Amino acid sequence: MEIVEFGSDDSGLVARFVDVSNAVRRHDAPWQHLQTVHAATGMLRHGWDGEPAVPFLATHGGDDVAAGEWHVGNYDNLHIAWLTVDVHPAFRRRGHGTELLEALVDRTRSAGRTSVGGDGWDNELSRSFAARHGFEQKAVEVNRRQLLAEVDPALVDRLHAEAAAVAASYELVRCPARTPDDQLPVMAEMVSAINDAPIDDLDIEDEVFNAERVRAYEEAHAGRGITLHRLVARHRETGELAGQTVIGVDRERPHLGNQHDTSVVRAHRGHRLGLLLKTGMLQWLREVEPQIEEIDTWNAESNNFMIDVNEMLGYRIVGRALAFQKSLA
């Protein structure tokens, strides 16, 4: 089997990579929207916040049999590499996934990292592959989807009013997609609240957010053609940023929205800011992105508070993923 590393500018290999990924989605997770060459190119060029994964395509006998990604971050968690191994359904159980995984693990060792992580859908194939290669299940993430045609605007408005009555000391601020330079430090401090989200048994450290990373996140999404809508809760008396929620809308497929972080700073919890932010975002999107038909979100299965808010707003489970990790030390 030949494993080829490539870049985002190699349109032919990107298209073949997407074909393998979509074959896997159709087979393993038919509820997922298919990848597009445009979206894959943007992600491979810009990543989530300026640190894109390294992509690989595995071929055997003239066939594209697997696709992989190797991703490391340099802001934090310098001990770990995150791996993706997708084997085309037509070429499984022939050792291709094992060979690709071993190549990615070798690359991780060469980079001086001491841990590898990855995820897979909650099925026997993922669990058995992980166990066979010494990975342990460390967390469960759940994908939920909100169909906006089924969400009653009157319900959203009522829930928003109820939350606003409890959170009278706070105001909602609709932020520009690009944060002004002088506001980046306080934005980074507020964004760090996401570190309180459950990580279950994963061996990972808190993420480090600074002004540079906030800007990199914004620029990466702009480069990918994604409009960011960031709604912030601000304490009226002190001006402190108390929490946020962010939705990304891909201009290639503007009927689809993706939920990014929703978090509330610890010192400001207990005022129903999570519900205030989520309902406030739906009201905002109703005005500026009326074409959105659905929004996807992910939560740790143990994040009961955010799950309660999401289900109140009509989010329903579409998929369940398992996170695995293995020490190389």
Automatic annotation (TrEMBL):
Is-annotated flag, keyword Ubl conjugation? no
Pfam families according to UniProt: Acetyltransf_1 (PF00583)
Keywords in alphabetical order, please. Answer: Transferase
Classification via PROSITE patterns? GNAT
- What domain of life? Bacteria
Q: N-acetyltransferase domain location, by residue?
A: 1-162
Q: Which terms does the record give in the GO molecular function aspect?
A: acyltransferase activity, transferring groups other than amino-acyl groups
Recorded hits in CDD domains, A to Z, give:
NAT_SF (cd04301)
Q: What is this protein called?
A: GNAT superfamily N-acetyltransferase
Q: Which organism is it from?
A: Nocardioides ginsengisegetis
Species lineage: Bacteria, Bacillati, Actinomycetota, Actinomycetes, Propionibacteriales
